[in-house]
Amino acid sequence: MRISFAVARHKSHKRLFREARGQVGGRSKQIRLVKETVVRNRCFAFRDRRARKRDFRSLWITRITAAAQMRGLSYSRFINGMDLAGIKLNRKSLSELAIHHPAVFDEVANLVKAALQKNNVNFGRKLAAV
């Protein structure tokens, strides 16, 4: 007895065509090109999910750096002071505080400065004698 794979084949093709929607020309109409496109898209999606995490962390660090420098601290000293002060805030929340709640960020910066002074850590830039 002859077995036809038509139903299964149509179902798998339909799934791939659905995933390749929005592509231009044969990339959304010809099964061979659709397969190549979908595999490539999945690779990009996998890679970029991880890249997005790196990009956001970099953005948060840039924001924290700017806010800390406005308060006379470098980023590395600020993070070190956070450790010394025992403040457990992640970079995302610190970034949000710096943008939306600068008064709260000022309090955190003051706690950090106090912890750095208590531990005799030199902070801030040295000013040239005039």
Could you walk me through the main structural features you see in this protein, from its secondary elements to its overall organization?
With 130 residues, this protein is mainly alpha-helical. The chain has helices spanning 6-19, 31-70, 75-85, 91-100, 102-118. The protein has two domains: 8-52, no CATH class; 54-118, c-terminal domain of poly(a) binding protein (Orthogonal Bundle). Pfam families: Ribosomal_L20. Belongs to the bacterial ribosomal protein bL20 family. Keywords: Ribonucleoprotein, Ribosomal protein, RNA-binding, rRNA-binding.
Summarize the structure.
This protein has helices at 6-19, 31-70, 75-85, 91-100, 102-118. By secondary structure, it is mostly helical. Helix 1 runs parallel beside helix 2 (31-70), helix 2 crosses helix 4 (91-100) and helix 3 (75-85) packs across helix 5.
